[in-house]
Automatic annotation (TrEMBL):
It comes from Streptomyces sirii. InterPro entries: BetI_C (IPR039538), Homeodomain-like_sf (IPR009057), HTH_TetR (IPR001647), Tet_transcr_reg_TetR-rel_C_sf (IPR036271). Keywords: DNA-binding, Repressor, Transcription, Transcription regulation. Residues 31-50 bind DNA. This is TetR/AcrR family transcriptional regulator. Pfam families: TetR_C_6, TetR_N. Residues 8-68 form the HTH tetR-type domain. It comes from the Bacteria.
Amino acid sequence: MPKKVDHEARRREISEALWRITGSRGLDAASLRDVAAEAGISLGRLQHYFRTRDEMLIFALRHINQLAADRIRARIEALAEEPTPREVLRACLTGMLPLDDNSRIGVLVGAAYYARAVHDATLRAEARNGIPQLGAFFADQLRRAAERGELPPERATEDQAMLLISVADGLASYVLLEVHEPQAAVRLLDLHLANLFGDAVEGQAPAGE
């Protein structure tokens, strides 16, 4: 019997070849021919899975975003049985930082996508797709914290949720640029959370890594 090919797995493998090129040479260097060579397949075989470069870029962006979401979910599941909203937020936010090789390549590739997305309407729409949902999730955690008396109610807002995302994105960029070491970025993130939560968490030790 002919060997059954897992098309979705092969598309993920091609995406990972794209990421390797992007991580070392930038997204503009990732032509279909170059990605095919990196993946160890012919250009014709690659085009069996992706007809165009844009189709490949969109799939690869969705795949790397899913891996990031899985990594953050694993951080949350590793917390206590009923984590506090602050612990959930911290797990999400630290999961957005490049703290190890896997998260670093994810942030690096994401940065390359975002730079290209500024001038590419299709890629821009895809890149910003998950931000409103993440903001809503963070805002819900802030509201839960306020209901539990852990956060001043006036700080449980959509604006504060978006500021949390912006802080994490900025710190991630600074780690890539080597402005901050990874642990310095975590310390600054904890400082921002302490300032946000105010006196209700004064003296509380930051959750462990």
